[in-house]
Write a sequence for this structure.
């Protein structure tokens, strides 16, 4: 992974975290918290997509598979962290 792809995943994650916070109402951590969770979720989603061989998602580019991967990772991570927070 190059520095450029890491920065792209951070940017995608920030947007994905914000979107995930809008999608999963009531489990959010505020705008900044959702962005941080989104960044972490995008890395998790990108890694997982690479392991599953999803074409285009692991490259870290601005394309539909990367955006959906980052959003999916952010939603899953935001949901899981919300469950842990409730417990």
């Amino acid at each position: 992974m190059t520095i450029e792809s890491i920065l792209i995943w951070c940017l995608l994650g920030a947007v994905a975290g914000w979107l995930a916070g809008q999608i999963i109402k009531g489990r959010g951590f505020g705008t900044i918290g959702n962005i941080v969770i989104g960044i972490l979720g995008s890395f998790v989603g990108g890694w997982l997509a690479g392991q599953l061989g999803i074409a285009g998602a692991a490259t870290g580019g601005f394309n539909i598979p990367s955006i959906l991967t980052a959003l999916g990772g952010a939603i899953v991570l935001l949901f899981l962290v919300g469950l842990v927070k409730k417990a």
